[in-house]
Amino acid sequence: MKFNEDNKELKSVCSYKVKTCLKCHAKTDDKDEREFFCSECGAPVLNKCSSYECDEILSYTAKFCKYCGSRSVFYNYGLLDDTAPKFLDNTDDLPF
């Protein structure tokens, strides 16, 4: 159970899970609080921060954790569109 800042109440983990898997579109069990992965393809059904120190539950659209800046589990699994701008990776031919 996590604290919901908007409603000032505890919410079940089930309220944060996606209703259908983002990868294979299989339905998830909306009453199973221990279901964290799709039983059909193994993709995560709950978006969390990938940092073990943070481990916050995130919205299903979050690419990065707003608390520590780490990537989200959905982003790491490739379940979210990667439209963020690319940064230089020092492999380009730079004039300096």
Brief descriptors of the model:
96 residues, little secondary structure, two-stranded antiparallel sheet, 4% helix, globular
Mean pLDDT figure:
82
Uncertain segments are none
Order of helices and strands: EEH
Q: Distance between termini?
A: 52 Å
Morphology: globular
Tell me the fraction of residues in β-strands, as a range.
Answer: 5-15%
| Category by helix and strand content | little secondary structure
What's the total helix number?
1
Please give the radius of gyration in angstroms.
16 Å
| Total E-strand runs | 2
Helix content: under 10%
User: What is the strand arrangement across the widest sheet?
Assistant: 1-2
Described by strand count, sense and barrel closure, the largest sheet is: 2 strands, antiparallel
Write up this protein.
The protein is mostly loops. 4% of the residues lie in helices and 6% in strands. It has one helix and two strands; from the N terminus they run ββα. The chain has one helix at 73-76; strands at residues 2-4, 9-11. A two-stranded antiparallel ribbon has the order 1-2. The longest helix is centred in the C-terminal third of the chain and has 4 residues, at 73-76. The termini are far apart. The model has no long low-confidence stretch (mean pLDDT 82).
